[in-house]
Fold:
Amino acid sequence: MPLCEECATVCLEVVLEEMTRAEEEERYYEGVVSRLEAREEGDTEGVDELERELDEWVEKLEELRARDARLSELERRVNSLNDQFVAEEESYWRDYSKWKMIESGLCARRWKMLCDSERFEGMLERLRSLYPLNDVFHIWHDGHFATINSYRVGTRAPGSGEVVPHQEASVALEFLAMAVQRILTVLSHACSEWEIQLSGSGACLVRRPSGERYVLCSEKRGVFSKLVVKTSFDVALCGLVCCVAEIGEVLLKASGFELPHAVERCGKVAGRCVRRAANSEESWTQCLCCLTANVKAIIWWCSENRDLTAQL
Structure:
């Protein structure tokens, strides 16, 4: 296809530029080749030195490669140790967290035990301030009568027409026998002549060593009949007085404590015989009041001398 004059001019200019650039590159390459040829002819003397230097660099390169191999092995071992350390560290922190939880639980338990111990010590101190015999056997008086747990001891007070029912007097005597038996247990002492036994039918005293039993009241709880008085009741009362007298001797020997009313093993209290058949109702009631006062004094001594009581 024919070109116009302007397009032909442009194409000619482009071709001329390419030819000029090619000629310049030809001259440049010819100069380079000339210089290389001249250099090859003049620098043959330094080739040996360059080869020796190249050999040295090759040896150094081999040394560096060997060193790099050693460093790589060392790096591998370090990485292995690092992984092992990381695993052990994770295990340590797991164990640490677990033991921290255990320690927290133990601290909480320890704090609870300390609080409980302090609370129990307070309760123990309050309990030490009490004495069970004082609460279980409350001995007081009601006019001319001695009372134990609100039951009057005896049958008739002097100068008074008031008469205590037989059942109430029997229960009072049973409580009195229970108190004496409990005092003997607290003192860890056994009477040499008598043993107090308690049962559902009432209290009785057993003579040692024959084993003869004497009831302190009738099976009907309180009918002080002539038969009962002659056969069992008076002997049981004398046995009870004998136990109180022996307790008094133990306390006198241990601390010099004397009972407020003299008690003899033969059955006398404050100079009066405790046998019901040998006294009027008024005199017998006074004798039992003195006996009850002695039991109250013994309970007081036990509450005030607990350490000494434990050593008896």
Observations:
- Residues 218-230 have pLDDT under 50 and may be disordered.
- The two ends are 148 Å apart (CA to CA).
